[in-house]
Amino acid sequence: MALTTALTTTISPLKLSFPTPTPKPITSLHFSTPTPFLIHRTTTRLRPITAVSAEVEKLGNEISSLTLEQAKTLVDYLQDKLGVTAASFAPAAAVAAPAAAEVAVVEEKTEFDVVIEEVPSSARIAAIKAVRALTSLGLKEAKELIEGLPKKFKEAVSKDEADDAKKQLETAGAKVSIV
């Protein structure tokens, strides 16, 4: 601390001295160069203006200087004069929507849920054993599953796995459905 001054305080016969730093004058400010991420966020990129005729440029400047109310009036006027609507400019979107609906209908279900509907009281022990064999549930959890029916036993499983689980549970005496 080369540049310090002494602050002197007198307390009774003692004299205390505390060093205080002298502030350095700011000579210049150095900013780190922004990262490409920040450049992207702060830089506005405009498309280059293509060569257009003076008449089109004049018309574009006049349209861009309109207020919103004037622009709406202009749109309404042009729609009436030309006999078009805003919806007529997007025929591809109207055609694409029914095609997407057809695709959804054609797709085959690949994930199934196995639901235990009911278990007769005479088959509860066998059903609990089947549930424990098909899952990693403990005895208490398997018993709670069997007592609170109907419940989803397995969710989002393949068709083969769902059929196998249904077969084992029906063998144990449970009434099972695949959803």
UniProtKB/TrEMBL annotation:
Keywords: Chloroplast, Plastid, Ribonucleoprotein, Ribosomal protein, Transit peptide. Its main location: plastid. It comes from the Eukaryota. One of its GO terms (biological process) is translation. It comes from Trifolium pratense. This is 50S ribosomal protein chloroplastic-like. GO terms for molecular function: mRNA binding; structural constituent of ribosome. It is found in: Plastid, Chloroplast.
